[in-house]
Model the fold of this input.
Amino acid sequence: MQTSLSALLSIRKQHTLIFIRNFVSYKTMEDIKQKVGQQIREARKAKGLTQKELGEKLGVGESAVNKYETGKVNPSVDTLHKIAIVLGAALDISLKLK
Done:
């Protein structure tokens, strides 16, 4: 059974938290993309979804999900929000000053 995005928005479950923390501690943008991709992959696997299944729920192809997870493409904040909703995860983006 496929759940609509609006139904997912109304469901409040605590699952995997996606944290993007301490941007300043990363050396390059590539490091950030790799870390975000790793967190997406871990959350997807925790939900038992394939890249293809996640892509279908997001309205993108399997290759797009693969690119997010490998850090080849930097997903927008909107896309990260959609990923969090589909995976039933909380999205926590932190910017911390030194």
In short: The CA atoms of residues 15 and 89 lie 5 Å apart. The chain has five helices and two strands.
